[in-house]
Amino acid sequence: MAQNDKKAAAVRMQTDQELAERLMFLRKEQLNLRFQQATGQLANTARVNVVRKEIARILHVLNERQRQAAQTAQ
Fold it and tell me: When you count CB atoms within 10 A of the terminal residue's CB, does the N or C end of the chain come out lower?
């Protein structure tokens, strides 16, 4: 299994509430990283991409669950 598959599997094991909390934390971190980058204080530039991809992973899983719930409701 690829590294990204392991990460996605770990995200899928979390509840919607846990994912929402993690998403809120990551969005705050992303905002702070953007400010640090704009002011030239950002030391680890790779963290910006890591946070962005983790946010995308969480949103993808949440959207999958919404689509699945909509299909079962029909």
Answer: C
d(CA 16, CA 22): 10
Q: Tell me how far apart the alpha carbons of residues 21 and 1 are, in angstroms, rounded to a whole number.
A: 27
Specify the 3-state DSSP secondary structure of 8.
Answer: helix
Higher pLDDT, 55 or 73: 55
State whether the Cα torsion 5-7-13-15 is positive or negative. Answer: negative
- Distance spanning both ends of the chain, measured CA to CA: 34
What DSSP string describes 15-62? -HHHHHHHHHHHHHHHHHHHHHHHHT--S-THHHHHHHHHHHHHHHHH
Predicted TM-score of the model (pTM): 0.89
CA separation for the pair 11, 5 (Å, rounded):
10
